[in-house]
């Protein structure tokens, strides 16, 4: 069995706060606010915030970016004895990457009913047919994560509504111009 | 429904040959021989061969590298109207990345009983709870892919056996040196 980091509840809260900080960085550049940090020996060794739109890369999810950074920093694909903190339940791709990187411990915030592969749609971290299992804690500062996501999507919808109204007014004045 | 490329059986065989060529490139640098190509409008737009050990990156699988390259070339994370050819059944990470990139069509060679997420352990491409499904053809030139993998692992085991024998002989001559 791989060694699993032992963290106090204070440390867990602290590292999830740092993951939420990464989520806010995503939000600040117009990305869906999701963030992650990877921890080893009580230190943050890598960070990731969702950059799918700005990078135009399907794999630029917070978790995958943090895993890539940690692989580069530690010069190994094996992230044994690390813990990943992420604000939203990982999707299939990220859950698969966590397994491939042999991360033994994951703390996540809100559940993702539409794409979550850890406790919503799938339970891949408990699958003993795979060559690695992941100890998981769910719901860490979930309300903060949910609230970030809710505000982000409300804002997007408000923008869409205003743009639609603007187009109507623009069309109206164009038509008036043509008729005058 | 996303547009799905329409390929002739000759094209399918040709593109899988190119994926097998990528697998041989992996083998040539000591990596597990797995290769992939991504095709759009009858042209290869990206290639990938497994580079996990040489990159020391958990995500350096053939499929993910091809997807990243295609995202960069086309400047979009949406790989609509493309087809992915890969010599081995995708793992959870790569299958998830294929879904995230909205690839509509996948042809793969050999099944992966230990980690395959498409028809062995999971069937994620048919999951209608997810926001994207993938049309899949299994077993394209599977024997060539299996044979590459089999030879690779036989070679690894042969090397391990010879190294063990060498160590024994080295220890023997060291001990003889000490006793003389």
From TrEMBL, chains A, B:
<dbReference type="GO" id="GO:0052717">
    <property type="term" value="F:tRNA-specific adenosine-34 deaminase activity"/>
</dbReference>
<dbReference type="InterPro" id="IPR016193">
    <property type="entry name" value="Cytidine_deaminase-like"/>
</dbReference>
<dbReference type="GO" id="GO:0008270">
    <property type="term" value="F:zinc ion binding"/>
</dbReference>
<keyword id="KW-0819">tRNA processing</keyword>
<feature type="binding site">
    <location>
        <position position="91"/>
    </location>
    <ligand>
        <name>Zn(2+)</name>
    </ligand>
</feature>
<keyword id="KW-0479">Metal-binding</keyword>
<dbReference type="GO" id="GO:0002100">
    <property type="term" value="P:tRNA wobble adenosine to inosine editing"/>
</dbReference>
<dbReference type="InterPro" id="IPR028883">
    <property type="entry name" value="tRNA_aden_deaminase"/>
</dbReference>
<keyword id="KW-0862">Zinc</keyword>
<feature type="active site" description="Proton donor">
    <location>
        <position position="63"/>
    </location>
</feature>
<feature type="binding site">
    <location>
        <position position="61"/>
    </location>
    <ligand>
        <name>Zn(2+)</name>
    </ligand>
</feature>
<dbReference type="InterPro" id="IPR016192">
    <property type="entry name" value="APOBEC/CMP_deaminase_Zn-bd"/>
</dbReference>
<feature type="domain" description="CMP/dCMP-type deaminase">
    <location>
        <begin position="10"/>
        <end position="119"/>
    </location>
</feature>
<comment type="similarity">
    <text>Belongs to the cytidine and deoxycytidylate deaminase family. ADAT2 subfamily.</text>
</comment>
<dbReference type="InterPro" id="IPR002125">
    <property type="entry name" value="CMP_dCMP_dom"/>
</dbReference>
<dbReference type="Pfam" id="PF14437">
    <property type="entry name" value="MafB19-deam"/>
</dbReference>
<dbReference type="InterPro" id="IPR058535">
    <property type="entry name" value="MafB19-deam"/>
</dbReference>
<feature type="binding site">
    <location>
        <position position="94"/>
    </location>
    <ligand>
        <name>Zn(2+)</name>
    </ligand>
</feature>
<comment type="function">
    <text>Catalyzes the deamination of adenosine to inosine at the wobble position 34 of tRNA(Arg2).</text>
</comment>
<comment type="subunit">
    <text>Homodimer.</text>
</comment>
<keyword id="KW-0378">Hydrolase</keyword>
<protein>
    <recommendedName>
        <fullName>tRNA-specific adenosine deaminase</fullName>
        <ecNumber>3.5.4.33</ecNumber>
    </recommendedName>
</protein>
């Amino acid at each position: 069995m791989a060694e699993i980091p032992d963290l106090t509840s204070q440390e867990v809260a602290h590292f999830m706060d740092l993951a939420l900080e990464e989520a806010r960085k995503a939000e600040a550049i117009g990305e869906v606010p999701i963030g992650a940090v990877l921890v080893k020996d009580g230190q943050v060794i890598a960070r990731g915030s969702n950059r799918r739109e700005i990078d135009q890369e399907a794999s630029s999810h917070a978790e995958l970016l943090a895993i890539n950074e940690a692989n580069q920093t530690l010069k190994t694909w094996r992230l044994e004895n690390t813990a990943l903190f992420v604000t939203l339940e990982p999707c299939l791709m990220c859950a698969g990457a966590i397994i491939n990187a042999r991360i033994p411990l994951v703390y996540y915030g809100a559940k993702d009913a539409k794409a979550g592969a850890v406790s919503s749609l799938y339970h891949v971290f408990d699958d003993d047919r795979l060559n690695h299992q992941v100890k998981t804690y769910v719901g860490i500062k979930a309300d903060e994560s949910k609230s970030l996501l809710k505000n982000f999507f409300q804002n997007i919808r408000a923008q869409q509504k205003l743009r639609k109204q603007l187009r109507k007014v623009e069309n109206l004045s164009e038509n008036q111009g043509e008729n005058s």
